[in-house]
Model the fold of this input.
Amino acid sequence: MPLQNDTLIRALLRQPTAYTPTWIMRQAGRYLPEYNATRKRAGSFLGLAKNPDFATEVTLQPLERFQLDAAILFSDILTVPDAMGLGLYFAEGEGPKFERPLRDARAIRSLAVPDMEKELGYVMAAVRQIRRALHGRVPLIGFSGSPFTLACYMVEGGGSEDFRLIKTMLYQQPELLHHLLAVNAKSVCAYLNAQIEAGAQVVMIFDTWGGVLSSAAYDEFSLRYLHAVLQDVKREHAGQRIPSIVFTKGGGLWLERIAAAGCDAVGVDWTLDLGEARRRVGNGVALQGNLDPNVLFADPVVIRREVERTLAAFGSGSGHVFNLGHGVSQYTSPEHLQVLVESVRELSPQYHENQ
Done:
């Protein structure tokens, strides 16, 4: 079914658009009352994510409220290590954790790439069901965590304040970490390709923790494996181009290197001016971002002003996808997000008039 709204695809490929497309990281989430109601029915986060009916329902909820230009699969980046046998669970108020974190060489050496339709079939079922439910309304974004970000959770056993365990491995046993990252890279590539085959029309890699690394370590332990994934991820499927986005939180220092890794677009957090980012990458890639999520706690007039500032920073022409610099907070008012979406749609056409 042809896309009724392909503005996101065109922007990611730096083709002319009538306005700047918008989607929001974590757009299906706890800030929406309808999401919370569905999650209550599902019984838990994993009950929601592992049930294709529920996952489809919450994926579509933001599109009923806001004039967004994309849907993003409702899932979690840790589904892949869960499928590897680490035992994902969510502790109340503590976020994701693993029952069996990787703490010794034997456990790491025994890791294998999971079977995408067997261990992760519920994700592919959700992708197929969401595509059918969208009826070509907007494109569907599939995603994965980056090899390094997944490794952080797999070794630490959950979130971390100092990343002590994985950084100890990085410096003390680099060859062991490289083995883990190589398995993760193959798994991420297979996972994204399976999502594309199931119906994802854009793919995004969340390198959430790449920014905690030193510059040299980022090249060796994160960027190297992002490049490996991007080399083998499908760039076309069913006659359609599949754009790819890479987002390294805190990655502004390495923007040019990320842009050269083989992706079509680079996500930028709020610490970097979009105009500077555009000058640095030239016409090589599109840019996605980068409003500070906390702007959404301010008054509507401030939100509109900051949207305008972000659009002006990128300037005229194609190649910008409006987004937050990270995920929307659960404490955000949906009405304030509505102001953001409406402001982008109203203010951005002037930056596309002469294309």
Remarks:
- The domain at 7-352 is CATH 3.20.20.210 (TIM Barrel).
- The chain is about 45% helix and 15% strand.
- The chain has a mean pLDDT of 96.
- The CA atoms of residues 19 and 235 lie 25 Å apart.
